Request: fold
Amino acid sequence: MEKTLLFYEKDDYYDFKDSKNLEGYSIISIAKLFHNPSLIPEVDVDSEIIDLSALTEYNSIQSITEQVISQFNGTPIFICDVSKREKLEYELRFVFDVFENVDKTSFPKKEREIHPVDKDKQLVSKKHRKIIDLDNDELIIFFDEFSSKLYGHSKFKDDFREQINTFRVFNKLGEHKILSLFLMGESGVGKTEVARAIFNCLKGEKKLAKINFGNYSNEFSLSSLIGSARGYTGSEDGEIFMKVRETDIGVLLIDEFEKSNASLFNYFLNVLETGIMESSMGEQMDLNGFIIIFTSNISKEDFKKRISPELRSRFDYKCMFTLLDNFDKKKYIEFRAERIRKKVFIEYNIELGDELKNYLLSKINVSSYKNMRDINKQIKKEFLCYLAKLTTED
Ligand SMILES: Nc1ncnc2c1ncn2[C@@H]1O[C@H](COP(=O)(O)OP(=O)(O)O)[C@@H](O)[C@H]1O
Ligand SMILES: [Mg+2]
Reply:
């Protein structure tokens, strides 16, 4: 029998799922099967659809997929997020015979609201995709992807998982509105990357909402951040409202938190407490379910001096980020090399194989770098040298 892989667009996923549910199917993620291999032979191919989207986070895609498929009793329907099409169509070219998009006319399209409970309130947060909206399968994939995107920081990753799990429970009970994380540590160790990774793993398509408090250190900072009071000249509502309104994900990043002043600190105390962000015009935004990440280059000692005990105790989680060890720095180089390899292949149809990776690893002495940004710059430099070498050799 011909094996087909069907691709769906993210926007269609829930409609597709609903229509399949009506036909008696449920959808399970391949990640769930990886996590519980004993479930594989139990899969009922006549009522279970396998979603392969999570595969892109694994290595040896072809062989692990073949292994799973060979244990099925029959051939289920396979589906996948269309954004992964290029990669999976290539990696699974020997596994599937046909790659095609889901027939859009086969299911009705509904208007959706993410949060039915908020229905009668005119609140902006409805349109944001949040960690509390994920179902258990999606959460497994989320953590998998998050771990693979952020290198090192294994203690943080464990704690983060626990924080999220607790948050999801207590948020549902109405006892925990916003999950707040305070990340400290020197520049270039991955603090901002945490917010980017959460944004990407929640499948953000617009822009991460990010505010740099370094720009809000004068006495007018609060009014420019949340909008100037009526009659006051300036923007109508502040940057933070604009950024939250424009993003599609329930994550807010506050960079350089310590640069600001007491009025902003107090404002945020209140936001964390109530889950509501109010502009000086009186407009309210419900941030229920949001993750707010505060980052700071502050040292542990200064943290105590600069940030009041009330505010300190209000953060759900505080963590000191340190520089990645050499092993993880090398992993990061490998990851960057792989990305460049793919792009070179797509752009120029040249297959570099492991060559670029080995070249970069041999040229860059990771132990002499105190900062991932500098490693990144060096990767770019070395890549140019590598290109020059290639072209002269040709
Ligand atoms: N642990 C990490 N995992 C993946 N990428 C990282 C990590 N640490 C740093 N980077 C990369 O290094 C650069 C600087 O990291 P960033 O998170 O912006 O640093 P900061 O700690 O100053 O916020 C970014 O391009 C980021 O992608
Ligand atoms: Mg940063």
Summary: DSSP finds 15 helices and twelve strands in the chain. The chain has three domains: 4-106, 116-321, 326-393. The longest strand covers residues 179-185. The domain at 116-321 is CATH 3.40.50.300 (Rossmann fold).
